[in-house]
Amino acid sequence: MKKRFKLGVIGCGVTARAILKGVVLSDFLHEKKIIVSDGNEENLHKVNRLGVQTTDNNRYVAENCEFLLLAVKQKDFAEAAANLKGCFHEKVISVVGGYTKNAIKKHFGSGAVKVARCIPNLPCVIGSGAIGVDMSDFNNSPADTEFISNVFNCLGAVLSIDESKLDAVTGISGCGPAYAFMFLDGLIDAGVKRGLTKNEAKILAVQTLLGAAEMAQSDEHSVAELLMQSCGKGEASIDAVKILEERNFRGILDDAVGACVKRTEEITVK
């Protein structure tokens, strides 16, 4: 039976609002084909301007949409799922942290549920995110995988990847913005220490990272080649990079990613 809504969203926090804004503003899906539920009236008010239908009834959403997007916080998932007990849904998209596809299927009480699991990151809120998503349950339905991809294409770069690698995705892109912001903060402080104003240092540091990232996106040179090119501009760059190597900059990054992945594995419900 055809459902009234194409996309139903349970949970209306920051990630869900970013998805809804991206989907509606891109004209990928008409706002009248979307329904959102959340127990927080203030959250719903924030998406009313997009023209989507809102409710506080999760079951109504699940029963009346073709694709069900779960966007509640990890700590709230068990309660939200319990509220949907007995409400079978074939097509589920999850951005809930800490729950594998198998764990989600257990909550729905049927192995027939298809789940796409997604790991977004903070820059998704401005449409510049990095999103890892496992859509393998939908491999036999090109139309469904295209729909799911389009939902997340509105948020940034989408990488289709096996669920077994999603913990690593969390370590690189999920937590990656925190590493980048810490690096930026340190670079800005170093500039201020040497006579720049905080604003001057911020402008230079942010644009430098933006430019370097844009060059790294090109297929023309590898990141290692770009590093060699930047060091080839003079002895000052070589001396600076030498300090980073001596202080085990790469090892520190590896340890940080490792700690993130380890913690993710510990808290993930399988």
Write the layout of secondary structure elements.
Blueprint: E1 5-10, H1 14-25, E2 34-37, H2 41-48, E3 53-55, H3 58-63, E4 65-70, H4 74-83, E5 91-94, H5 101-108, E6 114-119, E7 129-134, H6 142-153, E8 156-160, H7 166-174, H8 176-193, H9 198-217, H10 223-231, H11 235-246, H12 249-267
Helix pairs in contact: 7-12, 8-9
How would you explain this protein's 3D organization?
This protein is of the alpha/beta class and 270 residues long. The chain folds into 2 domains: 5-165, NAD(P)-binding Rossmann-like Domain (Rossmann fold); 174-267, ProC C-terminal domain-like (ProC C-terminal domain-like fold, Orthogonal Bundle), CATH 1.10.3730.10. Helices cover 53% and strands 15% of the residues. The protein is built from 12 helices and 8 strands. It has helices spanning 14-25, 41-48, 58-63, 74-83, 101-108, 142-153, 166-174, 176-193, 198-217, 223-231, 235-246, 249-267, and strands at 5-10, 34-37, 53-55, 65-70, 91-94, 114-119, 129-134, 156-160. The protein has an 8-stranded mixed sheet with strand order 3-2-1-4-5-6-7-8, with helices on both faces. The longest helix is centred in the last third of the chain and has 20 residues, at 198-217. The two termini are 32 Å apart.
How would you write the strand order of the largest sheet?
3-2-1-4-5-6-7-8
Please give the radius of gyration in angstroms.
21 Å
- Binned, the helix content reads 40-55%
Task: Report the portion of residues in β strands.
Answer: 5-15%
Uncertain regions spanning at least 5 consecutive residues:
none
Number of domains: 2
By CATH reckoning, the class of the largest domain would read Alpha Beta
| CATH architectural type of the largest domain | 3-Layer(aba) Sandwich
Number of strands: 8
Calculate the terminal CA-CA distance, rounded to whole Å. 32 Å
What's the name of the CATH homologous superfamily of the largest domain? NAD(P)-binding Rossmann-like Domain
Structural class: alpha/beta
- The DSSP helix count reads 12
Mean pLDDT: 94
Sheet with most strands = 8 strands, mixed
- CATH topology-level fold name of the largest domain: Rossmann fold
Query: What characteristic shape results from the CA principal axes?
Result: elongated
* H/E element order: EHEHEHEHEHEEHEHHHHHH
